[in-house]
Amino acid sequence: MEGSGAQPMTAALARRMHVSVQAASEMVGRLSSDGLIEVQSDRTLAMTPAGWRAADTIFHRHALMEWLLTRVLGLGWAESDEEAMRLQGAVSPRVEQAIDELLGHPQTCPHGNPMDSATARKRPAGIPMSEAEAGTDVTILRITEEAEEDAELLVYLEQQDLVPGTRAHVAEISRSRDAVTIDGPRGRSTMGLRPAALIRVIPGEADRSLFHEVPAVIAGLQG
Question: Are 139 and 204 in contact (CB under 8 A)?
Answer without folding.
Answer: yes
